[in-house]
C-alpha cells in the first residue's frame, strides 16, 4: 500500500517528513519536550501584588493556567500529522490548525497590537540598568540569555514589606520566566533571552504588543522543525498544542473526574477570571482514555469520525440604542462564541 500523498504537488516535503519513517521505518520514537515551566509554577507563587502588572502587560491569564504535565506521546502523534507546507494538521476528517482565536481563548494572550520585534544584540548591561534594581547577570549569561533557574534564585518570593519598585522588579522576573519557560521555550531547556526586558520597561505599553501572535508563530516554527524526518525534540508553547487538542479533538482528552481548588492563588474569588485553558488544571484522573501510548494515539486519530471534532461558531450582534433626550443613536457591537460538538 502506498501511504501517499496521492498528489505531491502540494505536499512536496514528504520524503523528509517524520511520517515517512513511521511508515517505512525505523520507528522515529517519542519526541523530547523542551520547556521549563515547572520551575515557574512550583517555585514562584503568583503573588496578588503583581496581578495588576501582569494584567497590564497581558500575561495574567496565562499565569493562571499554571503547571500542566505534557503528554509527550500525544504531542508526538500530533507532530506526525503536521504538514509544514500548509501549516495544518492532516486528519482523516480534513485539515485543522491552531488559530489566533485559539491562542486568545485558551491562553488569554492578546492577539491584537504591535508585533514583537527588536534588537537581539545590544548592550545587555545598559538594558538591565533601565530596570530599577534588576541585576546584570554578567557571569550567568550565554549569548545574551540567562538561566531561568537563576531568576528563580534571585526572586524566590516577594517580601511582605516590598515597595513598589521591588514589586515591579519581581513582576518582570516572573514574566521573563513565563516567556522563557513556556511561551518562547527553546531547546536549551533553561535559558531565556534578556532582550525581552526592552518590552517590559513599562507594563502598560507591554500590553499593547501582540504576544499571542508571536506565541503562535513560535509554535508553528517548532512544529515544522519537529516534523522533519530527523526531528528528535520540540520546544515552544507545547502546552497550547496539548490544550487545543484536548478541546477540539475530544476523543484524545482526559476525563475530568475530580476538581481541585486553584493552587496558583489564594482567595480565588477576588481575582479576575482565568482563561479557558485553566479548566484542565483540574484533571486528577484519566481513566477511560488511554494516555501516554503513542501507538494508541495513532490508532485513535486514524479512526477519527467527523462528529468527534469540536467546532467554534462566532456570532456578531449589534445593539442599537436611541437616547430620548439628545436624540442620538449609539450602536454597540459584541461577539458571542459558542462551542459545540457535531
Please outline what is shown here.
This protein is an alpha+beta fold. The chain contains 13 helices and ten strands. The protein has one domain (14-310).
Observed structural traits:
342 residues; alpha+beta; 3-stranded antiparallel sheet; 14% strand; globular; AminoTfrase-like_pln_mobile; Aminotransferase-like plant mobile domain-containing protein; MAIN-like
Topology:
Elements: H1 18-24, E1 32-33, H2 37-43, H3 51-57, H4 60-65, H5 72-79, E2 82-83, E3 88-91, E4 94-96, H6 100-107, H7 124-129, E5 141-142, E6 145-147, H8 148-154, H9 164-183, E7 191-193, H10 203-206, H11 211-226, E8 233-234, H12 238-248, H13 294-302, E9 310-322, E10 329-341
Parallel strand pairs: 1-8
Antiparallel strand pairs: 2-3, 3-4, 5-6, 6-7, 9-10
Helix pairs in contact: 2-9, 5-13, 6-11
Amino acid at each position: 500500500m502506498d501511504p501517499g500523498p496521492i498528489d505531491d504537488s502540494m505536499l512536496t516535503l514528504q520524503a523528509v517528513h517524520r511520517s515517512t519513517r513511521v511508515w517505512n521505518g525505523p520507528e522515529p520514537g517519542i519526541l523530547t519536550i523542551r520547556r521549563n515551566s515547572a520551575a515557574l509554577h512550583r517555585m514562584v507563587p503568583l503573588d496578588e501584588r503583581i496581578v495588576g502588572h501582569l494584567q497590564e502587560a497581558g500575561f495574567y491569564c496565562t499565569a493562571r493556567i499554571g503547571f500542566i504535565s505534557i503528554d509527550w506521546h500525544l504531542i508526538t502523534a500530533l507532530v506526525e500529522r503536521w504538514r509544514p507546507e500548509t501549516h495544518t494538521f492532516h486528519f482523516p476528517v480534513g485539515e485543522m490548525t491552531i488559530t489566533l482565536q485559539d491562542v486568545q481563548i485558551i491562553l488569554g494572550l492578546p492577539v491584537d497590537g504591535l508585533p514583537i520585534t527588536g534588537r537581539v544584540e545590544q548592550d545587555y548591561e545598559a538594558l538591565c540598568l533601565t530596570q530599577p534594581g534588576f541585576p546584570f547577570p554578567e557571569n550567568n549569561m550565554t549569548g545574551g540569555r540567562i538561566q531561568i533557574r537563576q531568576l528563580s534564585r534571585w526572586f524566590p518570593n516577594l517580601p511582605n514589606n516590598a515597595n513598589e519598585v521591588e514589586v515591579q522588579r519581581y513582576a518582570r522576573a516572573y514574566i521573563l520566566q513565563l516567556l522563557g519557560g513556556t511561551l518562547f521555550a527553546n531547546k536549551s531547556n533553561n535559558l531565556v533571552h534578556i532582550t525581552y526586558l526592552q518590552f517590559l520597561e513599562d507594563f502598560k505599553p507591554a500590553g499593547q504588543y501582540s504576544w499571542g501572535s508571536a506565541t503562535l508563530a513560535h509554535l508553528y516554527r517548532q512544529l515544522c522543525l519537529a516534523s522533519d524526518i530527523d526531528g528528535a525534540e520540540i520546544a515552544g508553547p507545547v502546552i497550547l498544542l496539548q490544550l487545543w487538542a484536548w478541546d477540539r479533538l475530544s476523543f484524545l482528552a482526559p476525563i475530568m473526574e475530580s476538581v481541585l481548588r486553584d493552587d496558583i492563588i489564594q482567595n480565588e474569588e477576588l481575582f479576575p477570571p482565568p482563561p479557558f485553558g485553566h479548566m484542565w488544571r483540574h484533571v486528577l484522573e484519566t481513566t477511560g482514555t488511554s494516555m501516554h501510548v503513542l501507538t494508541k494515539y495513532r490508532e485513535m486519530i486514524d479512526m477519527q469520525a467527523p462528529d468527534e471534532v469540536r467546532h467554534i461558531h462566532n456570532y456578531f450582534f449589534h445593539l442599537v440604542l436611541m437616547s430620548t433626550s439628545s436624540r442620538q443613536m449609539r450602536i454597540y457591537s459584541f461577539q458571542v462564541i459558542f462551542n459545540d460538538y457535531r
